[in-house]
Specification:
The protein has 216 residues and is α+β, with helices and mostly antiparallel strands. The chain has helices spanning 10-13, 17-34, 43-127, and strands at residues 139-144, 152-158, 162-164, 172-185, 188-202, 207-215. The chain has one domain. Strands 1, 2, 3, 4, 5 and 6 form a 6-stranded antiparallel sheet that branches. It is rod-shaped, with a radius of gyration of 49 Å.
Length: 216
């Protein structure tokens, strides 16, 4: 005799959700069509099948629920990661902007510093200029420029000198000199650099040297 074929259980037959849904819908249509004609004793079989179908459907839904919850957690994790990366990126951009602004300010300050030094040299050239018929007394001017067309300016002032000696040919002249350099933008002075110096001028030699130089 041949071996008997195993009878599949109801749980095995209901593994596929689509098949369960189709069976369930067919049974409901059948139940609706014979509800009024079938005896009361025959209705229990359909009710049992419906309850079994509902049980298997609920089991399948419970099996899918953890997967959906894991997908929701994965989405939240991705959103948190994107937000963290965005905040870190904005921090790097802000620090880069601050570093760039600091570099620009340092560059402007360096240019103003060298412009002030150039202004002191301008004063020294005025003191020893051969065009002077006599030792220079006072001189002052504002908004001077080394290179026209730029926004770098300097104000220069030469005060009355202190004379040591009665003979003009051998006397020494000590000039207080002040120079303020700045970067002008929008009518405002920025990156100011002020220097004060003492220039010693000797007419007999025609030379002028710095005795002191201070930053104000």
């Amino acid at each position: 005799m041949g071996s008997a074929r195993p009878i599949q259980s109801a749980a095995h037959c209901g593994a596929e959700v689509n098949t369960i849904s189709k069976i369930k819908n067919q049974i409901r249509r059948r139940r609706t069509s014979i509800k009024n004609n079938e005896p009361a004793c025959g209705r229990g079989w359909f009710n049992d099948i419906l309850r079994e179908s509902d049980r298997m459907q609920s089991k399948e839904n419970n099996r899918k629920a953890p997967i959906q919850r894991r997908r929701g957690m994965a989405m939240l994790s991705v959103l948190f990661i994107v937000m963290a990366v965005s905040i870190i990126s904005m921090g790097f951009i802000w620090r880069a902007d601050m570093a760039l602004a600091c570099g620009q300010n340092l560059c402007l300050h360096s240019q103003s510093e060298y412009t002030a030094l150039a202004g002191l040299e301008h004063a020294r050239a005025l003191i020893i200029s051969p065009d002077n018929s006599a030792p220079l007394e006072t001189w002052q001017d504002t908004a001077l420029q080394i290179e026209p067309g730029t926004n770098l300016y300097y104000d220069l002032a030469i005060d009355n000198p202190q004379v040591s000696g009665s003979d003009p040919n051998t006397a020494d002249y000590l000039y207080p000199v002040r120079c303020e350099a700045y970067y002008q933008s929008g009518g405002q002075k920025r990156a100011r650099s002020s220097l004060a110096a003492s220039v010693l001028y000797t007419p007999s030699t025609g030379k002028a040297v710095y005795r002191s130089m201070n930053r104000q």
